[in-house]
DNA sequence: TCCCCTCACACTTTTGAAGTGT
DNA sequence: AACACTTCAAAAGTGTGAGGGG
């Protein structure tokens, strides 16, 4: 599990702390929350964020309040608080491109492998969106949240609850590498999140998504209107989940059916198919021959290999892409209806069974993009880099910010759960100023990562934080670090996944490796302490 | 003893640099 | 010289199964 000591390289105030008492707002049996005292003492700063919630419901309590879990409104148990950004218009829809494949897996009980180095998801998350403004720019985010507070075990050929879940890990958010792109671009192609990797390595520095093994999770997709990834202005956001994409994390497959389905549908596992060279039968006979005569084995292998290649092994990539499935693995599935189904209340946690067979097959828009909101407010926290207090170094004092932006939030929250089909509020024109900029909301911790313009970063010697209201003005120095590599004055860029995903896409002058080196050789505090003249 | 995790392995696909042709 | 296409080696993505730790 986490220990503050092992995260020291993230800086002194990076706080993964020992779990404290459970938030009283959570129902009994819910997860044990991490507490972030830095945030707990924020007091009324957060009040305006959730005007329609009573204090005890907010999960963002004052000093005497219940424990705050961070991410504060992840997942299960209670409705997450309303996102401060407006929702995207109601006609924004998302469909899962390979939903049939997901359904096949879900019918059995999807398992996803976790490895230390990170393992890709299969099936992959491929979505399509519609209803976006073709000219506006959007970012696509994905995060993975625990579905319930239960740890599972594989027993008697089924998943059974085996106790309470491990404390939640800091939620990492994957930003699609093509973000931001115009609505037109997003809508004309399948959006694939295939590069996401899952790990059980709590010390992971590669930016992979950290999950616990033997737990149940679900991916969430977020569409955020933003002109660029560093923009200070964020427009509306909408979030979506697909019930079929729920999975249990494992370090080795438990369910033989899942293994076989993965082998038959994942091109990389082709070698383990009946006709594959890595099939058990092949391997066994190879081992026997090898034991007899190593040299002849090699020759025989080569000839076999040629034959297989010439005869053309079965290509299940085609199966997947053409919608053709191995007959023996097709399960009885609920009728596909992937139409958009906005605004569903969060499901009541039901630890068992982990995979209800007849789930609705609609995407569910999370009217409230729970952790996405928290992410946008405290991205670095989600990346395991710093506490909100730390990220608050560049935040404007709450008192400096007008309060009127919260008008209408109460209605928005109610609508999010009561389910009107109409958009919460009219969307601003893409070319117009995005008025609902929750980064300028009171009580918001401004992101140090995305909160300056790329132009200022590249062309003008670095951002002017003071003019942005993010903190002390950096008088000197563009990007060059004295005696070290250049990098933008944003400690959040230490999030390597972001760096890797963003550098090429945004043509940052700092390759991921360079940034990695820069950050790995400097304690986080060095980047945060302006006295040390890093910038 | 059991459960879960890690690692090395053999196989496959993907990626990108180098070479070749137009 | 520039571009498009092909080739090929390296890198990366798979499940397996032995072995180890708690």
From TrEMBL:
UniProt entry tagged with the keyword Glycoprotein: no
Subcellular location: Nucleus
GO (cellular component) term, any one: chromatin
Keyword DNA-binding found: yes
Pfam families: T-box
Main location: nucleus
Segments of skewed composition (Basic and acidic residues): 271-285
Domain named T-box: residues: 96-274
Lineage: Eukaryota, Metazoa, Chordata, Craniata, Vertebrata
One GO biological process term: positive regulation of DNA-templated transcription
Organism encoding this protein: Pleurodeles waltl (Iberian ribbed newt)
Gene Ontology MF terms in the entry: DNA-binding transcription factor activity, RNA polymerase II-specific; RNA polymerase II cis-regulatory region sequence-specific DNA binding
InterPro entries: p53-like_TF_DNA-bd_sf, T-box_DNA-bd, T-box_sf, TF_T-box, TF_T-box_CS
Ranges of Pro residues composition bias in the record: 343-356
Protein name as catalogued: T-box transcription factor TBX6
Keyword annotations from UniProtKB, A to Z: Developmental protein, DNA-binding, Nucleus, Transcription, Transcription regulation
Annotated region described as Disordered, given as residue ranges: 269-307, 339-359
């Amino acid at each position: 599990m986490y220990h503050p000591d092992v995260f020291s390289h993230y800086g002194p105030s990076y706080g993964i702390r020992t779990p404290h008492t459970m938030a009283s707002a959570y129902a009994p049996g819910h997860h044990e929350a991490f507490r972030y005292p830095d945030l707990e003492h924020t007091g009324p700063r957060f009040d305006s964020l959730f005007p329609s919630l009573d204090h005890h419901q907010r999960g963002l309590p004052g000093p005497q309040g219940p424990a705050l879990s961070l991410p504060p409104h992840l997942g299960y148990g209670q409705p997450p608080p309303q996102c401060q950004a407006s929702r995207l218009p109601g006609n924004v829809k998302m469909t899962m491109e390979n939903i049939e494949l997901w359904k096949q897996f879900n019918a059995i009980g999807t398992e996803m492998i976790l490895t230390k180095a990170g393992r890709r998801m299969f099936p992959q998350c491929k979505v399509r969106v519609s209803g976006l403004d073709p000219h506006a720019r959007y970012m696509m985010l994905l995060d993975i949240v625990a579905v319930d507070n239960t740890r599972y075990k594989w027993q008697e050929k089924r998943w059974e609850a085996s106790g309470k879940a491990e404390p939640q890990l800091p939620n990492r958010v994957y930003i699609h590498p093509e973000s931001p792109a115009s609505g037109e671009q997003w809508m004309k192609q399948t959006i694939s999140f295939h590069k996401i990797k899952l790990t059980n390595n709590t010390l992971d520095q590669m930016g992979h998504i950290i999950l616990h093994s033997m737990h149940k999770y679900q991916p969430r997709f977020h569409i955020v209107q933003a002109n660029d990834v560093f923009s200070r202005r964020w427009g509306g956001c909408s979030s979506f989940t697909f019930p079929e994409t729920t999975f249990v994390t494992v370090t080795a497959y438990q369910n033989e059916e899942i293994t076989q389905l993965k082998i038959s549908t994942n091109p990389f596992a082709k070698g383990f198919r009946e006709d594959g060279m890595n099939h058990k039968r092949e391997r066994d006979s190879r081992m026997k021959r090898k034991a007899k005569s190593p040299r002849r084995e090699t020759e025989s292998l080569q000839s076999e290999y040629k034959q297989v290649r010439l005869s053309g092994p079965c290509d299940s990539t085609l199966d997947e892409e053409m919608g053709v499935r191995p007959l023996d693995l097709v399960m009885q599935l609920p009728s596909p209806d992937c139409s958009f189904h906005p605004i569903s209340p969060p499901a009541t946690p039901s630890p068992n069974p982990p995979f209800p067979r007849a789930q609705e097959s609609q995407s569910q828009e999370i009217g409230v993009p729970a952790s996405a909101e928290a992410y946008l407010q405290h991205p670095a926290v989600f990346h395991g880099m710093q506490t909100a207090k730390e990220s608050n170094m560049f935040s404007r004092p709450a008192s400096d910010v007008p309060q009127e932006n919260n008008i209408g939030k109460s209605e928005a929250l109610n609508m999010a759960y009561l389910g009107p089909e109409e958009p919460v509020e009219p969307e601003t024109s893409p070319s117009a100023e995005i008025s609902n900029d929750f980064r300028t909301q009171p009580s918001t911790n401004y992101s140090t990562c995305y909160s300056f313009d790329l132009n200022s970063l590249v062309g003008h010697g670095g951002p002017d934080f003071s003019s942005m209201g993010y903190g002390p003005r950096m008088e000197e120095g563009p990007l060059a670090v004295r005696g070290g590599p250049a990098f933008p004055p944003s400690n959040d860029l230490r999030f390597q996944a972001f760096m890797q995903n963003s550098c090429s896409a945004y043509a940052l002058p700092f390759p991921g490796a360079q940034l990695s080196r820069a950050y790995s050789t400097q304690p986080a505090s060095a980047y945060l302490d302006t006295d040390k003249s890093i910038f």
